[in-house]
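Job type: complex structure
Entries:
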Amino acid sequence: MRLTPWLHCLRGVVGRELLRFLHQRSRFIAALVRPLVWLFVFATGFRMALGVAMTEPYQTYILYEVYIVPGLVGMIQLFNGMQSSLSMVYDREMGSMRVLLVSPFPRWYLLICKLLASTLVSVVQVYVFLAIAWAYGIQAPLMGYVYLLPALLVTGFMVGALGLLLSSFIRQLENFAGVMNFVIFPMFFLSSALYPLWRIREGSYLVYQIAALNPFTHAVEMIRFAMYERFNGDAVLVSVAVALVLLALAILGYNPSRGMMARKGGGGG
Amino acid sequence: MRVSSEQAGDAPLEPLTPALEVRDLDFSYGGKGVLESVSLAIEAGEFVVLLGPNGAGKTTLFSLITRLHDRRRGEIRIGGFDVRGQAVQAHARIGVVFQQPTLDLDLSVVQNLAYHGALHGMGPREARRQAELQLKRVGLSDQHRTRVRRLSGGQRRRVEIARGLMHSPRLLLLDEPTVGLDIASRRELVEHAHRLCVEEGVAVLWATHLIDEVRPGDRVLVLHRGRLLADGNAETLTTRLGVATLGEAFDRLVGAGEIICD
């Protein structure tokens, strides 16, 4: 078996996603403005009310806007993952998902290519956001930005696979708006993105327990530790495991004979 | 794995086998039969019209051939390769033009084609060469760098046909490709597809509900409510039914549920 055709396929899918991203400037700006509003408006307002005491992995007392940057990085990836699955639902209606799926390569491979492509788009968004945060004065150690990359790939795969899984059984775009409300917001707010877990625990033990179980919490902690040159084994383990399980389910969801595609198939002339 | 049809799998028997062979195909959805014991074979270089009203099961048949859905009974082979058991070889031999437009409107013509080439495992250089060749054939050589959004409906369809042929398939499926086109563009597309059969030896399965797209010598398959009611030459059909036009023949078949096969 020769490897090059497989690489050509990957290059094609990734290249298309990046080209589309470049052409959709409004999508890029929206993806950037969202976390920046949180950083400049929300965090500035809350820094007085919420000082964050010394907590791992930080070595000193930190300002609130320093605390929420990793959470906002996670948010960028979460939105991007969901948006790319939104475009899958849209794609399937418009037919370009069909173009992908009639390729002779195995379907699991095509879906992984697609996931990697959307993850790379989110990585670009994250680094642009971090560059702006750097200019604003929120600076992590330089090597932290390098260690961050693998963490971003894992998180990107995790949320992308979740989006893919959802897209395999959402039939119409209308339903997707509901998923935004029922998936993105709970995942983001019930996590350690905005407040450390110990702080949530003080408020409500139940919410704390949910947040501790939320895979997104682990992804955010993995990102936070990586940015400060630390390795959070538990968070990495949970994130990778969740990403793999979601990926397997998404591939199953797109299986032509077993998954949801078959169940919703037919119809049409 | 090399996935263009010339090289994927060396099957010496290939020229002898039909480009498409469907045997006893059954497909039901939500407890309702969408396709019932459909059998057909298309030889290389044959132009076949799949004629049926909306909802007859044409798109479903195409989805099963391209394996977008797979929950069915029966057998489907492309150039002798089973679409389930030998999916890679079978897929490499199919070119498809879907009913809905599937080009990226914001990308250029050549970017769209390059993407398709990559999905079939082609390197950039080979993809470009194939794209140029196929664009020339559909008369769009001068539109390489044009954004698809700027092209007319007929031109977009021609780009999709060029795309479907880049990997030299043995079978080209077209699902109502003329929807929304003016009369001149429609005629041109029908002619182009016929030329492909003669010049390239590609088997073409052309689904439509428009009777005027059938030419006198074409082989016609009439599909109605998931059943194949007729399979034969357009002229033979009208003669055997004793009617003057294919339109009348179609009404008779659909009305009476008669089955006529050559």
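Summary: Residues 4-13 of chain B have pLDDT under 50 and may be disordered. The longest helix of chain B spans residues 183-200.
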